[in-house]
Specification:
By secondary structure, this protein is α+β, with helices and mostly antiparallel strands. It is about 25% helix and about 30% strand. It has one domain: Aminopeptidase, CATH 3.40.630. Bound molecules: coenzyme A (COA).
Amino acid sequence: MDTTVAASAPITVRPSAEADVPAMVAIYSHHVSNGLGTFDPEPLQDDDIKRRRKNMLKRRLPHLVAECDGKIVGYAYAVPFRKRPAYRHAVKHSIYVHPDHLHSGIGRLLLPALIEACTAEGFRQMIGYVDAENLPSQKLHEMFGFRRVGLLEGVGFKYGRWTDALLMQRALGEGATSLPPERPKPERPGSGQPASSQPASSEPASSQAASGGGYSRTT
Ligand SMILES: CC(C)(COP(=O)(O)OP(=O)(O)OC[C@H]1O[C@@H](n2cnc3c(N)ncnc32)[C@H](O)[C@@H]1OP(=O)(O)O)[C@@H](O)C(=O)NCCC(=O)NCCS
């Protein structure tokens, strides 16, 4: 796949579309095989990312791509921090930049856009698991207000050795200083039903995220 982009081409961050999936798989597959950024054991298939993406959009979780000169040069998304209902106001996230375009300013556009989108959806905490040796990711996260809140020792086993994971966290919006807006509880496993049928009291501000409009940003 040709990934060259015109040097002066602007980078746009927008909600992902299904047509972006092959490009996201290519980016992810590179990092699975070469990098510190992922804990998945093997490359994903298009269908895996399509399914994950649909699940996230159903839960109003932002899923963004960075596009430059018509090419997908990075992506970032949020998933529930944990499945139990008590954790429904917290997300964890991932961010991947195309290997041919690392350290060219894409992460510093994608991460704040994801923070903004998660905040607009009413989430209150954002958590990243970052390999303890992944300095670029740690620096990027610190740049956008994430703090190191813990170190999980020896939790990963990659390339024949144990790895540590840093937990990095930042509050979104009012964080834990006020009560959260009501948010539908996640489905109980196996029931196909939400744990609570109570409607959300406030419409999430970036509801366009699921439909593909909303937060885009251009350099
Ligand atoms: C981590 C990652 C998302 C950063 O995105 P990026 O587009 O390369 O980063 P940017 O160019 O926007 O740089 C933003 C800041 O991150 C840090 N950074 C990025 N690349 C770096 C590098 N190679 N060495 C040191 N710091 C680096 C710097 O502080 C940089 O600020 P600066 O430009 O003032 O030096 C990207 O390197 C990546 O996709 N890595 C592989 C996958 C991965 O590790 N994902 C994160 C999983 S937690």
